Amino acid sequence: MDRKKELKWQYKQMKPEMGIFAIYSRQSNKCYLEVTTDLKSAMNGAKFKLGAGLHPNRELQKEWCDYGESNFTMEILEILGYDKDESKTDYSDELKLLEMVWQEKMAHCDFYVK
What are the CB-based long-range contacts (under 8 Å, 24+) for 88-92? Predict the structure, then answer.
């Protein structure tokens, strides 16, 4: 196998990290939680949308515009591991459960209404 084909095969074998991340407002002590099958892409997308004024959560978007990016933090809360069964591709139930667990863990935080 030539190098290009090998790299292509390795790329196809890679699986993105899935899990849950949070965006915190230091100003209002509110949290926005999002579960996703691709943490890196979702976090980059959320940051881009907020910067462009296009985030679907209007309340979060308004505060981002009012207080600025420096008043927010974004962090990965938990990474969900893949099942050993390679044929499994749907992790939506596990992600929903993960979101519920983190909503309970973060009872100290008000949440942005989805």
Answer: 91/18, 91/37
**DSSP string across 22-50:** EEEETTT-EEEEEEES-HHHHHHHHHHHH
> Is residue 62 in some structural domain?
yes
Contacts of 31 (CB under 8 A, 6+ apart): 22, 23, 24, 25, 106, 109, 110, 111, 112
With contact defined as beta carbons under 8 Å apart, do 99 and 35 qualify?
yes
Could you read off the pLDDT of 66-99 as tens digits, one per residue? 999 999 999 999 999 988 877 778 999 999 999 9
For residues 31 and 112, the answer to whether their CB atoms sit within 8 Å is yes
- Quote the DSSP letter at residue 82: P
| CATH code, 75 | 3.40.1440.10
